[in-house]
Amino acid sequence: MLRFVTDWANRGELRQLGRHSTLAWGLFAIGAGAGLASLVLYGVSGYSRSMLLLWLVGLIGLSFFFWSRSQVLPRIATADLLASVGVALAFAPLYLLALYRWPVQVSSDEVTIIDVAKGYAHPHAVDPFGVSTYLSRPTLLFIGWGKLGELFGGFDLYHMRLLHAVFGLLILAASYALLRQLLPRWWTVFATCVLGASHAFLMISRLAMRENTAVLVEVVGLALLLWGLRNEHALATFWGGVVAGFGFYVYFPGRATLPVWLVFLLVLGLFSRQTFPVRRLLVLGSIAFSGFVLMATPILIAESHIPRSVSGPSDADPQRETLMIYSDARKKQQEWVHAASVAEGVKKNIRWGLTAFNNRIADEGFIYWNRGHGFVDPLTGILLWLGVGLVGIRLLRRRADEGPLLAVTGFLILWLSFAFVVNKAPNYTRLLITLPFVAYLVTEAVRWLAGRWRSVRGVPAVLTGGALAALVAWNLAIAWDFVQAGRRSGEAIGSTGRYVASHDDIPGQKFYISSTENGAWDYYSYGEPAAWLERLRLFAAKDSQVQEPLDPQHLADFEAQPPFALFMRREAWEQAARQLANRYPTGRIRNITADGTRIVLEVPAS
Predict the structure, then answer these.
(1) Which end of the chain is more exposed for a tag (fewer CB within 10 A), N or C?
(2) Mean of the pLDDT values across residues 247-258?
């Protein structure tokens, strides 16, 4: 069926459009004019239906024009289609099973993302191209996340984790499309398995986040751009630019897609002029840039209107809080690592960033904090640099084409950027966008090692299979350490929430939390009262079951109608234990976390 549709498109009426120059350029004029008008209108008066209509006319008009100027559409081999789907299905159990239970740990960001997505599920008079109420992050992703959250079953921990995990599997299938342009079929399967088995990618994709959306944009955008470059396909190049522009609406690192591509084109123009003349690169680069401008300009306009903080770093400004070309980001880095000076904070960022693939520093983003392990396993850290060296030598000897050049250029740009330009290194969720390149370079290293033994029958297959088995097993062991840490010790948000979920069906049940904000008896290690309540409401059957927070200093005077559960620090209980025990003789104390620091007083109905 796919081959039939492709053949029809290649010889259909639309392909004749290119022969009618006047009509084709008319479409270009309409598309470019409407697109430009939509951007001007957005800059002058903001979002409106008229602006959206003009923007869609621009996108459609330019797409039809570039289709008329393109060569035939790609023919996707059935074996490749089956291989990409097969790899995703093979990893599905790892990504989908026991999502609610494992990991036990629930990041505060998970609660926030679920809450924000819920709020944008049914937007009213909201600018989809603008910034949201959540730290001025782009609105479009949260609208999509909200709609998809409803489609997947609702805004609870399981269904939102399921949504993120499904995107993880989609990334594996999409990564195959990019990696297949760099490797033979079975080596592409190998590389995709290396990516899928990455403990950081696996465990972060099992959280109710939106961080892997940056990887999806990256691999889809680069797959289109690389295919368009090799085949001089204007439509694929244009849509690659559009996808790169869409990277400005997803998780922040998705914005690196176009810079990576432009630097790659520059290097390609310097070293491969005979194969890729400068004029050809300029034309294709301009086409990609036009798609990018049409897609990314509205959010850039919206972000330019974000009020600047005069008191220091602000989480509401995604550029200034992250990129160390800004003083705000350097100041935040100093505070983040508790450095004595700004310079010391920057030095630590560079040191930790440069060694990110060979150290054991836990996630500085504190989303997937797996103590004792680094971003990649030690074997991957060794094979990665072997792959960089091998591909670099091949490129210098003119024995590699533009595919390996894109991979090694992309990796080096991101690696150095996360050390010198972006703060909070190593931040695992940001580093996810390096993994497709890491998987390719590791594969090239294994491929070279297997080739060294090709004269001995059976050894290459054993070496390849053994390397893949070792990589998968090692990463699963690291991921399991994270799961086991949660099962063994519990975690304040996750353990408390699951207690709420297991008791919210009791008639009349209410939940209270006693905590201070950044005090000695804070129940959660961070957050404010509104956040504490959201962490309970996420798991409760009804929001009305969660009551207002209590001051630990006044627990001795607390009175409520049973049944209820009162969460508190053990220190808070000890100073009010006698009064509460006398007032509620049927109540009992249970540990929420294994260390007994967080406890609950549960009082049944009379």
Answers:
(1) N
(2) 97
Residues paired with 566 in a beta bridge: 512, 601
- 564-569 vs 510-513, strand pairing mode: parallel
For residue 125, give every residue at least 6 positions away whose Cβ sits within 8 Å of its Cβ, in sequence order, or none: none
Q: Which of 125, 35, 43, 37 is nearest to 301 (CA)?
A: 43
- Residue 120 burial by Cβ neighbours in a 10 Å radius (0-12, 13-18, 19+): buried
Residue 417 DSSP SS3: helix
Query: What does the pLDDT look like over 317-357, one tens digit per residue?
Result: 778 889 999 999 999 999 999 999 999 999 999 999 999 99
Sign of CA dihedral 258, 262, 263, 267: positive
| Mean per-residue pLDDT, 166-195 | 98
DSSP 554: G
The pLDDT-based confidence of 69 (bands split at 50, 70, 90) is confident
User: Measured between alpha carbons, how far is residue 9 from residues 224, 225, 239 in Å?
Assistant: 18, 20, 17
According to DSSP, the residues that pair with 546 across neighbouring strands are 511
CA atoms within 13 A on the CB side of 63: 12
Q: What is the pLDDT confidence band of residue 3, given thresholds at 50, 70 and 90? A: very low
Q: What's the CA gap between 40 and 46, in Å, rounded?
A: 9
Both structure tokens of 146: 């909200």
CA distances in angstroms from 135 to 104, 200, 321, 536, listed in the order given: 27, 25, 11, 22
Report how far residue 33's alpha carbon sits from residue 572's, in angstroms, rounded to the nearest whole number: 66
Residue 333 neighbours by CB under 8 Å, 6+ apart: 324, 339, 342, 345, 346, 348, 349, 423, 424
Residue 221, Cβ density class (10 Å: 0-12 exposed, 13-18 middle, ≥19 buried): buried
Q: Calculate the CA dihedral of residues 266, 267, 271, 275 and round it to 10 degrees.
A: -60
